[in-house]
Amino acid sequence: MNSQRISREPPVRIDAEAEVVVIGAGACGLVAALRARAAGADVVMLERDASPTGSTSMSSGFVPAPATRFQRAIGVEDDTPGRFETDILSKSKGKSIASLARLATETIGPALEWLSDAHGLEWIVLDDFLYPGHSRHRMHAVPEKTGAALEARLLAAAEAAGIPIVTGAHVTTLYTEGKDRIAAVGITRPDGAKEVLACQALVLACNGFGGNSALVRRHIPEIADGLYYGHRGNTGDALIWGKALGARIEHLSGYQGHGSLAHPHGILISWALMMEGGIQVNSEGLRFSNEHGGYSEQAVNVLAQPGGIAWNIYDARLHAFAQGFPDYREAMAAGAIREAADVTALARATGLPEAALARTLSEVATYQSGETPDPLGRDFTGKPVLAAPFHAVKVTGALFHTQGGLMIDDQARVVREDGTPFANLFAGGGAACGVSGPDVAGYLSGNGLLTAIAFGFVAGASAGKLTSAKGS
Ligand SMILES: Cc1cc2nc3c(=O)[nH]c(=O)nc-3n(C[C@H](O)[C@H](O)[C@H](O)COP(=O)(O)OP(=O)(O)OC[C@H]3O[C@@H](n4cnc5c(N)ncnc54)[C@H](O)[C@@H]3O)c2cc1C
Predict the structure, then answer these.
(1) How many whole angstroms separate alpha carbon 280 and alpha carbon 268?
(2) What is the pLDDT of residues 125-134, one digit of tens each?
(3) Which CATH class is domain 5-252+405-471?
(4) Domain ranges in the chain with CATH number 3.50.50.60
(5) pTM of the model
(6) How many angstroms separate the alpha carbon of residue 206 from the centre of ligand 1?
């Protein structure tokens, strides 16, 4: 069980000291550490795992950013932070916290360019399809197009910058002094040994509470019975400490779900399949939602179907397209993708009722030709009609990560319930409140790494500045 706590008593001993301590070595923590180091601070990262991976490594690694030179290189000239902010607010129906959406959209472009200039990270912009809700091609990725490669490149940058990452270091206690100034952190080692590290500034980059089933059930009961597909070690520690300190906490019911996780293989099947013409049917062979609403809310829609599963149905054109995604190739290798010459074979390969499946496909053809409107509200026109041979994959809905958390100001300082900032406590990524509002449907693709990198960038710079100012 969780043993996270705040101690208002000083530690009995201090084992080591660092100017800036960063808890968690995912994208947020690594970017924060690089930024604090660049500000001249001596930085130590603490990571509970033996080898840092986080949800960052499990992710697709796609980071939305406006007005970057990487976009301009592929001819996207007219994207702006304001346009991106409008897309974010439109997805959350205006329920995102405006100051956070502004901070994220204005910071992320400079952050990606800085990571490239200062640390050699290469970015490509994905322009083979437009992610749902984004009005411009702005999804950036490292060339390998995986979160594991993004994490590996950030780890290499941290190593090159001489930033120590102490692994097997589970932070369990925050020691405060005075008016809730963080003086030190207490670490529990895998063998139970305790250590204390003093700090002048602390960055919470230990993500949200997806790995804490009790907190998920309390704050997001609608997904509590779904699979958690994020990093297990993200057990809500920042939230627990923040609550104990009296921090302002927002949007705990917000989260990123996903309605297309290959089942039982547990491999992400890109939503690009749906955006480009694929459909989802339930075990009765019937469509049940507008697949273009967004993959996050689709988690709940899929889990509401019989058995909590659905089938993605698509054709050879889309099968060829999907092979551009590493996850999809992994799903193929795992045997998750079924192939069928015609509807009869598709029904056999999936166990779906043939008559209903055939009717669904012929109805979709009439929506695709524009002959009749889709009663579920999806615009099928503009994409080719689904044609045999078909492909199918059984999927379920899952919780990927939580979006609610600690409220921060525009320097990424954690704020109290009355809005005043803590002196030396910063947060970013899943530890902070995100930009998706309080509902699953508010998550715009990429909101996760957006706030991991953008808020990590701000938090690291602010923490580094604080300590260098103190030292000068
Ligand atoms: C399958 C999947 C696909 C996704 N795809 C995308 C995508 O393409 N684009 C996007 O924007 N988002 C995506 N996301 C979301 C994205 O992965 C997260 O929003 C992002 O990685 C969060 O980064 P982070 O640094 O805050 O947390 P993490 O990367 O999870 O890092 C947190 C670290 O903190 C450590 N930690 C936790 N508690 C402690 C403690 N007490 N002491 C020490 N260490 C601790 C953990 O071990 C972990 O290493 C995806 C998520 C999943 C699960």
Answers:
(1) 15
(2) 999 888 889 9
(3) alpha beta
(4) 5-252+405-471
(5) 0.94
(6) 8
